[in-house]
Amino acid sequence: MAVLILDDTGFIKKGTTSAGVQCQYSGTAGRTENCQIGVFAAYASTRGRALVDRELYLPKSWTEDRERCSAAKIPDERDFRTKGELAKSLVLRALASPLSIAWVTADSAYGQDGRSRRMLEQSGAGYVLAVPKSQFSVGCPRIDRLFSQAPAEAWERISCGDGAKGPRVYHWAAVRLPAVAEFDHQGELPVRQRWAMARRSISRPDEIAYYLAYAPLGTTVEQLARIAGSRWAIEECFQAAKNECGLDQYEVRRYTGWIRHITLAMLAHAFLAARAAAATSKGAAETVHSPWSTSLWQRSGDSWQLPVPTARTRHNALPAQTR
Hints:
The protein has about 325 residues and is an alpha+beta fold. Helices cover about 30% and strands about 30% of the residues. The protein contains ten helices and 14 strands. The strands form two sheets. Strands 1, 2, 3, 4, 5, 6, 7, 8, 11, 12, 13 and 14 form a twelve-stranded mixed beta sheet that branches. Strands 9-10 form a two-stranded antiparallel sheet. Strand 3 (about 30-45) and strand 4 (about 50-55) form a beta hairpin. Helix 9 packs across helix 10 (about 255-280). It is globular and about 60 Å long. The model is unreliable at about 285-295 and about 310-323 (pLDDT under 50).
């Protein structure tokens, strides 16, 4: 069950001449720093994980100053693109590659983009994407209010994968959302289903993360939780590539130098990941905002779902915020 994971990481720098550098928030540092930001894609399966693609984020302070771009050897065609747009390019390249991709996952900075979700639905890839608590979706005016109506029995203890200290167990609730005919059916037959999900800390129940998921028919909540949990694999890739392959250890200032160094470090990291997978396979085979007055949650078989207001929700009937 291979997953493509999207995220960005910062590279702390001094001065103003390194391509793309400016004072901006870095999740790596946890604060605003003078840094470069790279948007990355990682590929993770049961046999290992590795970084597979990258783009350098260029703020408007760069793209609106073509002389500055020219000095840093930034191509003339590189105009301003948001991190979400860069991530979309990575996804499209990955889907066009020989990689077998069943799922895409990312944090809310990328998951909240409705156009990117539509693109994944059109491609046939499944996704489990974190979204902000104010997220709108089909049949879901605001996701945090949707889950405030969840009955107590809808929350289950589920592990989303093993961490450094063992299984990462949370309380999860999931509800099936109404279908969109254009994307979820082949003819009259449903082939995909939509979910809204919430992950609640057991020790700190006020800490809740929210997700939208798009999955083949028959996918379980446990499987969706594991896809969501696989997002941490890219953090492990960043750490390993920086510590073992020098991903962040460079002094280049030009755009082409950054691309070459990052690509070489990624290749070294992928090589180490492949060697580790080969060594493991010798010992064992792969295992394969108007609040609702009452809750609309209904049990259907072994899952919860929202009632469908019409036979099937049509794409052109969705609120503008979800497109």
